[in-house]
Amino acid sequence: MNAVRTMLARLGWSLVAPVLALVIAGIITSLILAVTGNNVSGFWDTILTVPSERQLANILNYAGILYLAGIACAIGFRMNLFNIGVEGQYRVGSFAAAVVAGEAWLPGRWNIAFAILVAMLAGAVWAGIAGILRVTRGVSEVISTIMLNAIAGLLVGFLIAKVGVSTGNSTNTKRIPGESTSEGTSLFGLFSGPSIYTLLFLSVLSGLVFWWVLNRTTFGFNLRATGTSETAAVASGVSVKKMVVVSMLMSGAVAGLVGMPVLFGQAHNYGSSFEAGLGFAGIAVALLGRNHPIGVAFGALIFAFLQERAAVLNILAGVSPDIVAVSQGIIVLAVVIAYEVVRRYRIKREQAAVGRALARTDTVEVAP
Amino acid sequence: MSAVVPAVEVPEVAPRKQGGNALRWLLWFAIGFVALALLRVSTGANDINSTGALRAALVASIPIALAGLGGLWSERAGVVNIGLEGMMIVGTLGAGYMGYQHGVIAGVLGALVFGAIGGVLHAVATVIFGVDHIVSGVAINIMAVGIAGFLAEQFFADLPGGGPTQSPPLPHAWSLNIGPLDDLCREMAGKGIFLVSDAFSLLGVLVGGFNALTMLALLLAVATWWILWHTAFGLRIRSVGESPSAAESLGVNVYFYKFVAVTVSGALAGLGGAYLAMVSFSGYQNGQTGGLGYIGLAALIFGNWRPGGLMIGAGIFGYTQAIQLRGGTESLHALLLGIAVALVCVAVWQARRRLWSKVIGAGLGALVFFVWFFATDEVPRHFTGMAPYVTTLLVLALFAQQLRMPAADGQTYRKGSAG
Questions:
Q1: How far is CA A309 from CA A70, A302, A313, in A?
Q2: Cα–Cα distance, A181 to A47 (Å, whole number)
Q3: What is the Cα–Cα distance from A149 to A127, expressed in whole angstroms?
Q4: How far apart are CA B272 and CA B142, in angstroms?
Q5: Residue contact A325–B143, C-beta within 8 A
């Protein structure tokens, strides 16, 4: 009974901050819309409409991709390692996979599997550079990953120009043969057509593995320990250097997966039109979900939902869809501030509770 | 019984002379100038220091420098500012809106105010609420892209010459143009005489269309140096970035100084945005900054968190960008030789200091660049775009020992924790 109550209390407390943040973001967004003379009620009507099946499929697809980016960020964040470089890592990974898959050295499905491995490897290598620089030269991973993001964009651009095939107005990597693409799934008939990327199972898998590693393995324990208190972790024999490199590699490997569902499910090649900005969205999603496998899923769903509704905002309410990016930014900032405020409030409450308890025992002792 | 404490040897620090610093900068400037002139003569790449190239380099450097200066203010007060990019973005928008409505001065002020609002937001999050600096910066960057896109559509969509993603052309800032001198410079620079022509093409930058905003930016760089290193106010700002608890125990209001510094940081980044919208381009465009805020951050690190160093960093990064935009594959190719020779000089210098591992490193680097120079005819444009980032990574990796960032940079400080 008591255990259930503490669990519920914990759940309640962890929900306070995100809900607070969503409310604040909603209020500020409404204010911005009102001040600029936009249709506030139209905005809310559009945002809060229940999506159609096709839109639901889009939301799910986008959420799955965001989830991968979020998990990639969360792995590092859990040990206070700011991998800002998911953006660059997924580009390098997607490009490498697209090249390999386009060459089709292996038949059918094997080609997909091989390309996915290549993507993970490429992402891991790109992230590993930052990890190695951090442990050998003490270079802050924040700065190095920002630089590596920019380098990745230019390097991939250069390589596409070198090895790509020109298709009229743009240069892309070689098209993946039809037998090695994944058609999409209807999720056992939940959707009327094959509208969900098959490779979204990678998202589910990454989430499960992340959860399992974090909570059921020594490595995961060390990761969390290092994140909570590095000095304590060092004192208990954790090699922080090893942890940094390994978690950077893992983060990069997951980041490499980000582009896979779209690459095999829709785009079939890599070029300049391949979606950018997912890495930064992943940071936001990870923060929103407190780097928890389930929390990140909710964060990804919320962001994907907003993104999908934004697409029709202009048509239905005459509001520029850019406002959704504003809301997303506010959500991120509000959620971290809310967590901090809630944390401070809880500490105060606990201290007060301890104070009261001490006061009570005092009176008991004093009483004759 | 007291243990024998070995006497701590206090290393003798030569008192730094006021004039010495300026002289050293001048010397470096002269070396760079002569090196470029030599390179021009020896490779025949005439665009390497033509007036046009130098002017383009200056224009490309200033936004980077302003973003870097913004970073300097904030990081010297101990607040890491990844949000520079976002503050720059809202700066371009402020300049676009106010500049179109009320003229150049209003545009500059608008950019300053918009940028400063971004700075205030960052300060509220990081200083008052103790949010992680990186997180806040990332959030500000996401928000800035959205707000700029959103407001741009509001402001400019229905204006003549404007559109949902760009403003109408903005009024030009005043620029200095001394016709006869300009003509003389052009004539002399065209003659190709070693050093003389080079000097005239440099002079041509100053007398042919030297922009008021460029002047303002350079003055702000000097002002930053003077305020942060030569006033009590600046000392306090730096003290909260080095050791906030010590500063607080001496009665410095840590929150106040951090707040001010981050706000100024935002304003400077915003001004960088104004420069982009009003000088580099002829109006506001969505996505105009293109990561220049990050390059500013790179310049800051390259310059070891010092104003002089960051200006040099901004100059180098701006120069490579400008050369690339002028389509100067020939110039870039010539620069490879310059880098190779510079590395040889480093190797010789390190050999005199008997630091053999560094000699080998520099020698190998020189070899790579020599081979690159002689084996190819041009440098792919993607590579020059990479130059600032790769340089920063190399500087960080190779000179990590010499770099010294503010001691409490990036740490959250809670009021009263000095005890």
A1: 21, 11, 6
A2: 34
A3: 10
A4: 19
A5: yes
Which of A:149-188 have CB within 8 Å of B?
A: 150-151, 154-155, 157-158, 161
Among chain A residues, the shortest Cα distance to B301 is held by: A143
* In contact, A258 and A267? CB cutoff 8 Å: no
Strand ranges in chain A using DSSP code E only, listed in sequence order: 165-167, 170-172
Using DSSP, state whether A313 is helix, strand or coil.
helix
Put simply, whether A325 touches B (Cβ < 8 Å) is yes
CB A33 within 8 Å of CB A319: yes
> In sequence order, what are the beta bridge partners of A171?
A166
> Does residue B172 or residue B208 have the better pLDDT?
B172
User: Given this model, what pLDDT does residue B327 score?
Assistant: 65
Could you tell me whether strands A170-172 and B175-177 are parallel, antiparallel, or unpaired per DSSP bridges? unpaired
Tokens matching residue A261: 């569902």
Q: Give A 112-141 residues with CB within 8 A of chain B.
A: 133, 137-139
CB pairs under 8 A between A and B: 136
C-beta neighbour count of A54 within 10 angstroms:
13
Question: Torsion angle, CA of B164/B167/B169/B171, rounded to 10 degrees?
Answer: 160
Query: Which 198-257 residues of chain A touch chain B by CB within 8 A?
Result: none
State the average pLDDT over residues A101-107.
Answer: 85
pLDDT tens per residue across span B355-394: 788 788 888 888 888 888 888 777 777 787 787 788 878 8
Pairwise CB contact (< 8 Å): B125 & A325: no
Encoded tokens for A232: 């304590």
Q: What ipTM, to 2 d.p.? A: 0.85
CA distance to partner chain A, nearest, from residue B189 (Å):
35
Percent of chain A scored above 90 by pLDDT?
32
Contact B65, B300 (CB under 8 A): no
* C-beta of residue A80 within 8 angstroms of C-beta of residue A259: no
Strand pairing category for B175-177 and B208-211: antiparallel
Torsion of CA A143, A147, A150, A152, to 10 degrees: -120
Can you give the pLDDT at residue B355? 79
Helices (H), A263-321: 278-288, 293-317
Query: What confidence tens digit (pLDDT) does each residue in B287-345 have?
Result: 888 889 988 988 898 888 999 889 988 988 888 888 777 766 677 777 788 888 888 88
**Is B154 in contact with A36 (Cβ distance < 8 A)?**
yes
Q: What totals of helices (H) and strands (E) does chain B contain, helices first?
A: 16, 2
Q: Does the beta carbon of A336 lie under 8 angstroms from any beta carbon of chain B?
A: yes
Q: Are B272 and B70 in contact (CB under 8 A)?
A: yes
Q: Which two tokens mark A308? A: 């999908």
* Contact at CB, B139 and A280, closer than 8 angstroms: no
Question: Count of CB atoms within 10 A of residue B377's CB?
Answer: 8
The tens digit of pLDDT for each residue in A222-259 reads 888 888 888 888 898 888 899 999 999 999 999 999 99
Q: What residue type is assigned to position A79 of the chain?
A: M
Question: Which burial class, exposed, middle or buried, applies to B408 when counting CB atoms under 10 A from its CB (0-12, 13-18, 19+)?
Answer: buried
Interface test with A, best of B90, B122, B135 (most A CBs within 10 A): B135
